[in-house]
Amino acid sequence: MKVAVLIPCYNEELTIKKVIEDFRKELPDADIYVYDNNSTDNTNQIAREAGAIVRKEPRQGKGHVVRQMFFEIEADYYLMVDGDDTYPADACHSLLETLINGEADMVIGDRLSNGTYTNENKRPMHNLGNNLVKNSINLLYGSDIKDIMTGYRGFNKYFVQSYPVMSNGFQIETELSIHTLDKRFRLKEIPIIYRDRPEGSESKLNTISDGFKVIMTIINMFKNYKPLFFFSIGALIFFIISLLIGIPVINEFIQTSFISKVPSAILAVGLMLVALLLFITGLILDTVVNNSRKDYELELHDIYWRNNQVDKNKK
What we know:
elongated; alpha/beta
């Protein structure tokens, strides 16, 4: 059984050595990879000296790093963790056990259920953002995920080999969660203890700009994964506005058999046509998405049996 620990890094010289050493202690036989995403400090050198396999990803953004990791690294099970020493290495056994036992294709290190993230995190807007993202996705999929944006996750090889990375930045966490729900992968959460960054280590996230990016990611994925629902909301809005403008025109016509509010009548008809077009667009795209899901299932089936054959040949 081959296990790979994946650590995306950007300017984590204060913590990266401890993270590597902690995981080496817990998983002495695992391959530990550090992907340096254009660090300007000594992260790269320190990681090499600590015994990690260090590679560079010149395209800035966590999404680019994860994409390259999934391309290059072959293993049976993967653990991905941030290099800021906020996640406990000893929780890796629970995450791995869940994957090995076949309970999940992706397992999440849940920081929120036990309250440690809320207590340790010194940025209240981040708590608000986490709740906004979590509630939006749970509403969309009827799920009950507690921690959408955690940086501590585990995957089996089927998930990694079939996952198309679309996000460039840290929105990758949201994308991973939505993809798992949409494609019906098995998902399980393991509560973990979270600790805030040590003194001198700074978060790379900007509350406002990055929060906006996450919201846009949710909207785009809502559009891409649930187009009928997405476009139906727009259609409903235009339909209601059209009625509000058009009802007085209709009442006037019923009472007088004459329309004096011609601009309002034209506007109401135009808005109704927009509502109809949005709804039809949603229907068409929903059919496209469903066909895409069927194709994905067939591809996933091929990946599964291909890996099964490889595993049998190894034995």
